[in-house]
Amino acid sequence: MVTVTLRSVTVLCEIVLMGVTLVWHRSSHCESNQCVDVAVTGDVVLVRGNPGGPVLRFPPEAWRALCAALKR
């Protein structure tokens, strides 16, 4: 299991994809609706710009590295 901690996360919605329920999260700091949504499932971190749009898939190690680089 992978745990990704996001500060001030709000649950947006749940969708069912290939029998897996995804819970998408968006930071509560997002006021402009121009923020990404993040879902964690199994061994993949999924990121999307908007519902129904393309989804990026990250291995957990790559997601942690990206988050660490953004914090710097």
TrEMBL record:
DUF397 domain residues: 22-71
- Protein name, UniProt field: DUF397 domain-containing protein
UniProt-listed InterPro entries: DUF397
Which superkingdom? Answer: Bacteria
Please tell me the species this chain comes from: Asanoa ishikariensis
